[in-house]
User: Fold DNA-3-methyladenine glycosylase I from Algoriphagus alkaliphilus.
Amino acid sequence: MSATEQKSRCPWCLGFPEYVSYHDTEWGVPVYDDRIHFEFLVLESAQAGLSWATILKKRAGYRRAFADFDYQVVAEFPESYVQELLQDPGIVRNVLKIRAAITNAQRFMEIQKEFGSFSDYIWGFVGGKPIQNSLRTMGEALATTPESDRLAKDLKKRGFKFLGSTTIYAHMQATGLVNDHLMDCFRYPQVKT
Assistant:
């Protein structure tokens, strides 16, 4: 039995090696870097109606197609590039999701101007520190919370697209605003603050 198999993990990540690696190194780790927040917003908005596994497998394609998630570059993507992206098999070829990423990059920078950083803005919705849940089973995990509802509503008011409460809660989990690792997962105490 390998070391990977011996560790107790959240069961959702056990499908393929990239999923395990994502769980073991990224998911739930508090993020304060705006570029990483933007990356997850692009990926999570692309996920709408699809599995996270599908998006994770296309992550390298997104990194290439979306200028390594440089929101300043993405905000200026011309329509001609949108048409190119619709031919790119390395990403989800949905025109509404592609255009949403561009719009969201523009709104993202507006939030930076108002709050100093997107990180400062988003962490304000959880009082500046991660929410520590104590989940024993996946059945106890929530799809939305009052915090994700408020954040999604505020983002929508600011003009963001494809970022409802469920998607935003996934963002909060991924970027460590909430610790939803199961308590018996080896990562739970590692990301607990």
In short: The chain has a mean pLDDT of 95. Residues 90 and 151 are 30 Å apart (CA to CA). The radius of gyration is 17 Å.
